[in-house]
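Quick start: what a row looks like.
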Amino acid sequence: MNNPKTILVVEDDRQIRHFIVYILEAEGFQCLSADDAQTAMMFLVSENVDLLLLDLGLPDFDGMDVIDKLREWSNIPIIVVSARDQDREKAEALDRGADDYLTKPFSKTELLARIRVALRHVELFEATTRDPVLSVGDLSIDLDKQQVFLKGAPIHLTQKEYSLLSFLFKNMGKVLTTQAILREIYGVGYGTDTRALRTLMAGLRRKIETTPAKPRYIKTEIGVGYRLADQ
């Protein structure tokens, strides 16, 4: 690939770390690797890292602390790679600033797909400053005019439905936790009641999905939140 992206792999298991690096370098990525948080932070401040693959169970600091520290000064994509499979920990990592979450064991195909989605999200974020019209499949949104189109025809959304869809579009491909969406749509004081969000999501899906029970655009990440498909 032209101008290969640099990925920092932070994993304390030597065999897994070498396996991930092997996969990524075979796909044309440049790789840096670390087996603890301190080495990872040294690379992050001294090298041009485009994406961080982060194991949570590190020997010196918890991976959650690495997310917190990095998010104080950088917005590079973070994909958490961990054996921890609890939905609560997935949601916590995402709420603290991670972009995605992979549970071990995972396939080569899934790993590469998640990396490409995260890198495309960076490109999309930069593109929104140049072009206010974003699209996925037959669905598009004009952020300046606050209009939504399906197969070229305008569709009417309520203000809350539009706010939800625009938030998803601005984070296309990224998992958004239920709590992050609630804060965005209803405000920080709304609480944790998800019933209003489920109702809002159902109404939005009826308007944009051919088969709402099998959504093409808005995917449910069970126990965590939602993701707008990026292709």
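That is the whole record. Residues 37 and 61 are 6 Å apart (CA to CA). The two ends are 21 Å apart (CA to CA).
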